[in-house]
Write a structure and sequence with these properties.
about 200 residues; 11 strands
């Protein structure tokens, strides 16, 4: 049985693209010959769905377009200040990370992160984009008795104050809705922030 949740008709394609059904038919024939789509005849008519090769090609196209967009975008993330568990202070007190942030970001961070809880859909979508974006990667570092995980960082400004950076450790207990921000400043004091205050972050990709 054909599963139509991942299939579409020529008429639907024509409506979505604004192209004539004759043009659509010609293009579909080319895609079928290239192994990108499969055309399936049923009692209800003809349905078109992507083959495995087609899904892979579509995924590659989406990633290429996304990377092109990211190279020219500044992302905006809003959220509310929240207290952390003190892990950021420990993390930033380690010489390897202090030296690496100085090397890659150009500043030595204050010994503690500013934690932010995202509460709106657009900001959360922008946060998820950071998982795909390249960012600045602080590589993993092995010491005799432990391994310090890699960290991805994105230069940012907090309420228009810079320098700052969003940091995403490879090993973290935080959900996607919580982000950590570092800066050479004690941001709570510099911006007069307390838990529950709303802040806006510009992220430079």
């Amino acid at each position: 049985m054909l599963s139509t949740d991942k299939a579409i008709t020529q008429a639907e394609i024509s409506k979505e693209t604004g192209l004539s059904q004759q043009t659509i038919s010609r293009k579909l024939k080319e895609l079928e010959e290239d192994g990108i789509i499969q055309r399936i005849l049923t009692k209800e008519g003809e349905y078109i769905k992507l083959t495995d090769k087609g899904e892979e090609e579509l995924k590659n196209c989406i990633e290429d377009v996304l990377q092109l967009i990211l190279r020219t975008r500044t992302l905006h993330i809003k959220g509310k200040v929240t207290s952390g568990l003190g892990e950021g202070r420990i993390f930033l007190s380690l010489p390897y990370y202090k030296e690496s942030f100085m090397k890659y970001l150009g500043f030595e961070p204050y010994a503690g992160t500013l934690n932010l809880v995202i509460y709106d859909r657009i900001s959360l979508e922008n946060r998820l984009i950071l998982d795909i974006a390249k960012g600045i990667v602080i590589p993993e570092h092995r010491e005799p008795n432990r391994v310090l995980g890699s960290v991805k960082a994105f230069p940012s400004s907090v309420n228009s104050l810079s320098p700052a950076a969003i940091v995403i450790p490879a090993r973290t207990t935080h959900p996607k809705s919580v982000i950590e921000v570092i800066s050479p400043y004690y941001l709570r004091e510099k911006l007069n922030l307390k838990d529950g205050d709303e802040i806006s972050i510009e992220v430079y990709l």
